Automatic annotation (TrEMBL), chains A, B, C, D, E:
Its EC number is 4.1.2.13. NCBIfam families: PRK09250.1-1. This is fructose-bisphosphate aldolase. It is an enzyme of class 4 (lyase). The keyword rRNA-binding does not apply. It comes from Palleronia marisminoris. The lineage of its organism: Bacteria, Pseudomonadati, Pseudomonadota, Alphaproteobacteria, Rhodobacterales. Belongs to the DeoC/FbaB aldolase family. FbaB subfamily. GO terms for biological process: glycolytic process. GO terms for molecular function: fructose-bisphosphate aldolase activity.
């Protein structure tokens, strides 16, 4: 399928990358109802690992079934579906070729003691991603954790292997750990820094959280104030994060966090759109609602990203 | 031997998996007195490693002999026999091809200090499993331990290797360690979480413990209460665990723990059956009784799983 | 994109195959103007290798440029484009993700002496296919050649490697060589035999030539006559070839050979359609015409395969 | 050093190739007196292997010394110097970084019986090229030889390895062997075919011989005549060869063969220039003359390629 | 391009090193406006990793774009451009072959807790450097850190691998950590020691900071005083550092640190020049100014290093 000019412009930023990686990026950008717009909505379902099944699927019981998520992503016309190994395998044959998948290759969980450090286990491989026909791998890093350097080394190796076989890498860059306060985890200076680190590590797609106007690092705070960098609105903060992602040369999607009101989700999407972000990665806010509600929400989000609302 | 419709339905859930893995799952499901029912009884004998010989075999001296266990599993018409390397090797030739075996590839023991962390040693390989003609490998993880991430990385690699040569993986998912209270080890929220983790790690068969109605993790407790998830009876709790195993798309067997009264064992089996579980994995409660008693107990369990008692 | 029931039925025939391979088959079947119909038109451009540039591109000079072929395949809404390494590379970045590509991994040429045997050189690897983002590899075998056994061993190894990383294999099964007469190369018994060999070697897609009613092998001739196998029409012969491809469980596309009249091409397509074949692989008959003529021809072929003409 | 627009246009044709390969192509195109013009003159010194020392260096004794050739290439302001392993090693340290070098990785010789087949030995590796700081590897193929398929397989593997570490591949495509007459070795249809084969095998730079208006292959002859392809002049024939090199998307340099008169060399260069070729690869015609004469000749060639003569 | 006598003298110090490594050193020494002088100015842009994007690029917004830095290095006629993986990749194709690049293969960041130790993550490989066409790899060590021994072992392994494929290694030798006071980080005895350690680890180019006349280590202080080593001026201290770098047998470049006044930068350069140093590595002082100012500054620095100011 012929790629739109917009998509071709985005792909051109991945210069020097092989056609396999670009082809898979194209595949995700040309899928679903936002195809060709340069915008993306991704459904991530790794919360069963992170928070346990009841907290994750309990609010909407059909979501206990892996097929539910594949079907939701397809029916809602999303760009991609991301999940850990076992969950992807549980529907990989039924839905083969019907929706681009992202294999989340590392995972943490809630049954970790406060002294064990912020870290994740590598739970899948690039070989798994090829075997399952995935379009990308996904990996979480924790800038701010005392384990971050090890995590960086892990993803750099996996990214190298993945790219060599034509698979792009999505980095979930989530600041947390010993060096950062709770409030700092979503501070704008830290969010922009997290985006920059992911970009420098070679992420093809960067996933960060929407941020607040808090400034965590004193030296950064000083620069934000001196340079009068606008961080008053969410739109302004998205802009700063895009600028920190090689001046927009990398695809950045923003996550919404725990379930919240719909209007708030739509406002987020408008800010992402107006700030030049590439889209949303929405998990619990989608699959913890009844399917009809989730479908309506995605429908509205598509309209927003298309610019009509 | 033609697989029953029930067994074919179960195998169909392992979609995308190769015929080698499915063939071995079929072999276990079509073995013994429960063949074709979709139910399983497995005899595991790794307690000599975990607790030492006297605590394990002392109550029934013939059980010191590895052949005793092979013969018991065969005579009782069980689906499979699981044990560590040395024990399997000690009867592997005599009983070659007579009972599906599961090579337990990691093991802990009781001679570990309280500060050494909850972990196990990898004590056998996929090559060993092939050489010994096993039908699966078995691996224990400890969600809640500070060593859990390493354990996850180990099993993910071994599972990948095992599946690539047609061997399914059974994960013993036993919560314990720094992040969990003693009572929490069998809490229903934790048990269901343990099942979910095993499923996400790619287990073909999940082994967990029967649980209590305790709720360990505050955030989970809140959801169980809000969503009014029924955990009053063992049957209800088995249902919740099956739901947490990809909505029943994975085979789950439940272990009984230390030796206890027969009626209690039968009640457990009825709860497993009525909650949609796939069966029992019974070690000490079998081989610590005299063989005739054990045979009678298995006879009764078979009846229960067939639905007639 | 949701696959049609027809495509899902076709994919179900590739049982035991991993989701990666099925996903790529789906990708080709769900591409272009025939998407979802189970029919395919593929543009192959390896004749520059086989016959030299002037004989190949001379009749339509723009075809000297590799981009011409990518663009033609995209503009005509075909299912896939097949070519050797260098030609694919020359447009792989510009057209990344826009049309499924098949990397032809072996090639012969016309500068071979009559005594050198019918063989091809392996000119690309599975790694190349991944790096270039291809959807499949393609390989030619010559049943009937004294080198055929070596060719079979080559493709079986490459197919194994390709499938393990999610890439299907297309086998060009072209009878020729010491064991076969010129007329026998297109004999129906030989064509059906060539299809059967490709299927047995594990081809995911089989490419054979349309055949004549000649019967080459005396023992085969006897059976065709005894069993009164209908080979009178091209439709009947296509049916026999499909039957020989695991009773239609494998995708089979038919090639047309040197440039010829349009009506003849359309009659071929109708026979392929009516005989249950999966489509056409058309090279010289496409790119040796002016682009507007080629586009009109593909338009007509699409209509024929959709059943309307 | 900033690359000229002309050089950037050439590099853009190597789409999908990594920056290492492009960087080395750029390095050669931006070296010497023709830097930035898109034209190249390369000094190849592998004739000592091919014809023996006396036939090679005898006419100009200083040429027995490897340093002579390095110095000549540097002093004349050429783009690159190509030679086999030992010869490059003999000056690699002295001239490190001063002239791009091409490691000729296979070689034939004149001490081969007429029955041993047209083939070459692989006499150096990609590792050698990196260790010696080379800018490319060079490899000879003999289309027309009964050994050609093996040669194709060798170069395809080496090219893959070389490109993965940032080294371009120059293919010397020299038709000869059982399938071709002596006159056919330089026939225009065969020369264009040789260029096409090199391009399809993935050559980054193609080296072929200037051709005659002879047409060797009957089927090709027919097309040349039908399509009225102009082959009357050397300029026209260079054009046909460029067209056969992916419509000019690949760099093509032409060799001059045995020593001949200067005017003839200059006429060749003018034809190469006017036909759109990228330059000359001149060995014996350079180093078999006295250095002052060779310098004067190169000076003249540079002027021709710059378009002023 | 013929190397100057000065450059050849410098290369001769790398005796026993292969021509690939020397060729790349030559390439950097023969690039830009200082080519052939033995002096170098390098633009390093890894501060986005070290300090975050706002602190790094905020003062000069165009610097958020990776292309800005490539272009600045080229336009200013510098010798090389150094950056981490992601940043180099973001312009590697556009600027392929136009400026020697140094791949910074390890990186720290500011989101590290005070208890996590002074260390860096390895974020790129030698393979990456080859693929991207780099002329060297760069690696930071922290003499004085509790992690320094691990860092030494990492770089020694990478240096070995890099040199074997013709890539020189630049060591950023930055004293810091548990064993050193804040003032000691730039003490002359420590700076000279840092240079010596880098040289002993096999650095081809050593990068250290300009130092103060503070003496940190008591035993060293004693010797400096006894031997009356001149450390009064920056020029004298540069001399001491060069002496400590194998008596000037290794290339040493000095970094300037945070943005400061221009005159101070020029004085530094004069001291480097007069003390026998090889040049400056200037990041923030360049790209945090407007481009026109940065260009003027580089222009002045070139003049200073050429000896005319």
């Amino acid at each position: 399928m012929k790629a739109t000019r917009k998509v071709q412009q985005i792909l051109a930023n991945y210069e020097g990358e092989n056609p396999g990686v670009k082809g898979n990026l194209c595949r995700m950008l040309m899928e679903g109802r936002l195809k060709g717009t340069g915008k993306m909505i991704i459904l991530p379902v790794d919360q069963g690992f992170e928070h346990g099944p009841a907290r994750t699927y309990g609010p909407n019981a059909p979501a206990y079934d892996p097929h539910y998520h594949y079907q939701l992503a397809i029916d809602a016309g999303l760009n991609a579906f991301a999940a850990p190994l076992g969950l992807l395998e549980a529907g990989a044959d039924t839905f083969a070729g019907q929706i681009p998948t992202i294999l989340k290759v590392n995972s943490a969980n809630s049954l970790m003691s406060s002294t064990s450090g912020k870290d994740q286990a590598v739970t899948a491989s690039v070989d798994d991603a090829l075997r399952l026909g995935c379009s990308a791998i996904g990996f979480t890093i924790y800038p701010g954790s005392d384990r971050q350097l090890d995590m960086f080394e892990e993803i750099v190796e996996m990214r190298h292997e993945a790219a060599s076989v034509g698979l792009p890498t999505v980095i979930w860059s989530y600041p947390r750990g010993e060096a950062i306060s709770k409030e700092g985890e979503t501070a704008i200076d830290v969010a922009a820094y997290a985006a920059q680190i992911a970009a420098l590590l070679g992420a093809h797609i960067i996933k960060i959280k929407l941020s607040t106007d808090h400034l965590e690092v004193p030296e950064a705070k000083k620069v934000f104030e001196e340079q009068q960098i606008d961080i008053a609105s969410q739109t302004a903060r998205v802009k700063e994060c895009m600028r920190s992602s090689f001046n927009g040369r990398r695809i950045v999607v923003f996550s919404g966090g725990a379930k919240k009101g719909e209007e708030s989700i739509y406002d987020d999407a408008r800010a992402i759109r107006d700030g030049g972000g590439n889209g949303s990665i929405i998990g619990r806010n989608a699959f913890q609602r009844e399917k009809s509600e989730a479908m309506a929400m995605f429908d509205k989000l598509v309209s927003i990203y298309k610019g009509s609302e």
